[in-house]
Amino acid sequence: MTTSVRGPNEKLGTLLSLAGISNAGLARRVNDLGAQQGLTYRYDKTSVARWVTKGMVPQGAVPHLIATAIGGKLGRSVPLEEIGLGGSDPAPEIGLAFPREVQEAVHHATELWLIDPDTAGGRRGGWWDSLAGTFSVTAYATPVSRWLITPVDGSVAREAPLLLGLDEAPRARPVPGDGRVHRVGHTDAAKLRQAAEEARRWDSRYGGGDWRSSMVPECLRQDAAPLLLGSYSDEVGRALFGATAELTRLAGWMAFDTGQHEAAQRYYIQALRLARAAADVPFGGYVLASMSLQATYRGAAEEGVDLAQAAIERNRGLATARTMSFFHLVEARAHARAGSAHACALALSAAESWLERSRSGDSDPAWIDFHSYDRLAADAAECYRDLGMPVKVREYTMHALARPTEEYVRSHGLRLVVSALAELDDGDLDAAVAAGSRAVEVAGRISSQRTREYVQEMLRRLEQYQGEDQAEELARRARLVLAAPA
Fold first, then answer.
1. How many Cα atoms occupy the beta-carbon half-sphere of 75 within 13 Å?
2. How far apart are CA 277 and CA 355, in angstroms?
3. Are residues 239 and 185 in contact, defined by beta-carbon separation less than 8 angstroms?
4. What are phi and psi of 164, to 5 degrees?
5. Which range has the worst mean pLDDT, 123-137, 268-282, 465-479?
6. Is residue 384 within 8 Å of 336, Cβ to Cβ?
7. Rounded-to-5 percentages of helix, strand, coil across the chain
8. Under a CB-based contact definition with an 8 Å cutoff, are residues 377 and 400 in contact?
9. Cβ–Cβ contacts within 10 Å for residue 44, how many?
10. If exposure means fewest CB atoms within 10 Å of the residue's CB, which of 142, 267, 344, 399 is most exposed?
């Protein structure tokens, strides 16, 4: 698709001459690069002529593919500004679709992954930031409905088509890394899953940070996308879709943790679609639970309840006891934020009951290993905080903080803030300052917008203790943490 006419694009014409690329050659290369990302283009020399002589602007990922094609010829990176397409942004619909067909799903997922923070304006002030305020919980309606109706796809086996490069020689799609042409195997999927595991533990310890330049989006762009567009059997394909679903959900979670809710929503939708292709219903439920937490956090608690209950209902008899416990815990969080104390208590009771049924020999997936009684107690404390029951908050916070761990630093910091808030509600300033001081110390070591927002809430609550030296000292330290770059 092409948009407005702006007059001749002299920059693009000049650079094409410098690189020695003909209009037909650029068109072929853009079509090839797009195909490698699951995008179907049919540009020709006339299309390129329109870009150069009339200044017509191609939409979506095409400007970035043009820059990549020219950069490959020149042997260096070419920014969009250098080819006169600096104002080009991907379509705002990217990442929101939930296609019925598997290959169409691959197309939409890889289109989202293609947004490179170094070339697509993904850094601060760029495309993601231009979407600020566009999060809408209603965008989850169609994806969730389609997943509930059909949580598992039919065969996902795929034979990759041959591509034509600038030299016109037929070639199969290569797997990244070694440049050789071969079928995707279980080892390829296992490497992606290992990358997801390492990234998950890094995120728990240090926070989402600048998720856009982290290893997860890079892995999706450079490793996962070419693999999904390769050749594989149904069995290997299921494993491949499962690994990419984990990476995509994690990218969404990291975006959520850093306050990029618009990006998080798009990654969550694609993660749910990939989970369906993987035939992994429990993981699909885990993605729904992530959506629920985001919806609840963004003030859509009733929708958060619906999302959590969808995960629960579809996983009865499928997910392990530990997994079901977590789904009920997420449901409890949504009920609490909605002000439904009775429903929250029932969900918490169910979460505890399911957790008591779990055994060390259960076939729990690796992604649920964080869920323990400590986590249940921490979330229960937040439930009762939302319900305005400080005695219960203190009770559960004590359990949550009983065994601090370096593995889940961010979670420990959030629990400390909740503890401080509970002590402030109870009028125990000494205890509040003790917990708050530890919370501020943890917050200074990680990069997490959610943690910063919790600290901001503590800072607001400390205002009632103006004139108290220890309260003012804690407030001073909290402001220093909040003033530091995120």
1. 0
2. 29
3. no
4. -115, 125
5. 123-137
6. yes
7. 65, 0, 35
8. yes
9. 12
10. 142
Q: Nearest 5 degrees, angle CA 221-CA 136-CA 243?
A: 30
Residue 303 tokens read as 């929708």
pLDDT number for residue 181: 39
User: Does residue 420 contact residue 436 with C-beta atoms inside 8 Å?
Assistant: yes
d(CA 402, CA 379): 14
CA distances, 293 to each of 32, 193, 253, 268 (Å): 40, 24, 10, 12
| Interval 171-227: pLDDT, tens | 334 444 444 435 899 999 999 999 999 988 887 766 655 555 568 988 998 899 999
Model pTM? 0.77
Instruction: Kindly report the length of the chain.
Output: 486
- Tell me the three state secondary structure of residue 364: coil
Q: What CA–CA distance (Å, rounded) separates 308 from 292?
A: 6
Helix (H, G, I), strand (E, B) or coil at 235: helix
Q: In a 3-state reduction of DSSP, which class is residue 126?
A: coil
Only one residue has tokens 């150069």, namely 52
Non-local (6+) Cβ contacts of 360 within 8 A are none
- pLDDT tens-digit series, residues 110-122: 988 877 554 444 4
316 burial type by CB count under 10 A (0-12 exposed, 13-18 middle, 19+ buried): exposed
Residue 304 is encoded by which pair of tokens? 């958060």
